Amino acid sequence: MDKLKRDVEDCKIIDNPSLAELRQLATHKERTTKYGSASYISRMKNRSAKATYIVTA
Known about the structure:
Layout: H1 19-25, E1 31-32, E2 38-39
Antiparallel strand pairs: 1-2
């Protein structure tokens, strides 16, 4: 199990941030909609075969 441990340098732990703090941290990935709402695009890193559906027209 020790092989999986690694040192982390220059980290800052943010415990229970407010919504304003979360939005400020994510502003570099934010796109604002025409209605003024924040929009974020994320990438799924894994998938479950049970939850994958193929839709054809």
